[in-house]
Design the sequence.
């Protein structure tokens, strides 16, 4: 009987140590933010065109991972994919008379019916700055995009890049996750505003709009 009790008493410290180790490992996991926000539609006159849009897996499931450089820092996973689709759906539906979501990626030789062009957005880079030496939770996020505009038959029309920037407007937030989320939302809103403002200023896009007989805002109506 005493031998059995001794075995159990020896097992408890080992079990306790294992549970503590697991708890420490779980506590050191990356901070994960799934970006959520509200994105208003642009207050502009939509272009009289039907735009096809293709969201690739890398875009629709976009995720940024930053591994911590030391044990005093946290690794971060920032998932923007759902919010990316949300804001670009809202933006494009406000910019064009009709928007068609494509189920397959357009390729040359396989025309897409009933669209004037196809837009394919890409997130090429995401960077962020964290306040490491202060308790003020003001975060900054930069995003770099690339856009491919193709004809209905898959021929390239234009390709251009764009950057966006977001910063938490206040340091009085409950958590680091809230601050990162808000900075990402601000960066997405900035991206939408930049795209809406500069789309028709891209030289190759201007040429395409003229071919379609669409007046450009900077030209006489």
Sequence:
């Amino acid at each position: 009987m005493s031998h059995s009790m001794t075995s159990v008493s020896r097992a408890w410290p080992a079990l306790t140590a294992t549970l503590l180790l697991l708890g420490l490992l779980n506590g050191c996991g990356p901070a994960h933010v799934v970006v959520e926000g509200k994105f208003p539609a642009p207050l502009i006159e939509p272009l009289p065109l039907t735009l096809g849009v293709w969201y690739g897996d890398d875009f629709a499931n976009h995720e940024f991972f930053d591994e911590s450089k030391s044990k005093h820092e946290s690794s971060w996973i920032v998932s923007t994919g759902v919010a990316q689709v949300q804001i670009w759906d809202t933006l494009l539906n406000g910019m064009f008379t009709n928007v068609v979501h494509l189920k397959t990626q357009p390729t040359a030789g396989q025309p897409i019916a009933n669209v004037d062009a196809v837009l394919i957005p890409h997130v090429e880079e995401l960077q962020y700055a964290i306040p490491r030496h202060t308790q003020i939770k003001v975060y900054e996020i930069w995003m770099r995009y690339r856009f491919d505009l193709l004809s209905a038959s898959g021929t390239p029309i234009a390709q251009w890049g764009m950057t966006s920037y977001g910063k938490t407007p206040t340091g009085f937030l409950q958590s680091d996750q809230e601050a990162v989320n808000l900075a990402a939302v601000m960066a997405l809103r900035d991206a939408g505003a930049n795209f809406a403002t500069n789309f028709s200023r891209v030289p190759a896009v201007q040429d395409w709009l003229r071919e379609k007989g669409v007046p450009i805002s900077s030209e006489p109506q």
Observations:
- The CA atoms of residues 86 and 107 lie 25 Å apart.
